[in-house]
Amino acid sequence: MEVVTGLDLERYMGRWYQIASFPSFFQPKNGENTRATYTLNENGTVHVLNETFTNGKKDSIEGTAYKANPNSDEAKLKVKFYLPPFLPIFPVTGDYWVLYIDEDYQYVLVGGGPTKKYLWILCRQTHLDDEIYNFLVEKAKDLGYDVSKLRKTPQSDPPPEGDDTPKDTKGIWWIKSLFGK
């Protein structure tokens, strides 16, 4: 599968809003305002903070991304999270392949590796122009993804900010998501 080559990690850093994705067991089924914030670490890895809001409460998980092959110019990354988030014990690693990114690094199509089980459309803003969205959907379709599985993620404008948002302190959102709740 074709992936982006020469991805500028420094330009890729920052916040990305999830515009649409394939439903997955590791994200709450009714999540809103889902976003990812990437920060470049001194050792060249990337700190990953994924956040979503469910029933007015913020759920989050942190992980680390790194190049799958440090000698390759392809934008094939691995992302490692530890579960459960409230007591990180078990490492879970997945593929994060940048399939398309615009030249201004404002919107991106990301796949979860060769299996085509995962797909995300991300944007620097909470909303993406329909024309661009449709272009990315067609790109995914051309790459062999079943785009009928794409689900748009509700996003508020402006998005929730700050630490005053109630948090899911029970840490059970990821267990519920395993059962499709």
TrEMBL record:
Family to which the UniProt record says this protein belongs: Belongs to the calycin superfamily. Lipocalin family.
Organism: Hibiscus sabdariffa
SUPFAM superfamilies in the record: Lipocalins
Annotated stretches, region: Disordered: 149-171
Lipocalin/cytosolic fatty-acid binding domain span: 7-155
InterPro entries in the cross-refs: Calycin, Lipocalin_ApoD, Lipocalin_bac, Lipocalin_Blc-like_dom, Lipocalin_CS, Lipocln_cytosolic_FA-bd_dom
CDD domains in the cross-refs: lipocalin_Blc-like
Full protein name: Lipocalin/cytosolic fatty-acid binding domain-containing protein
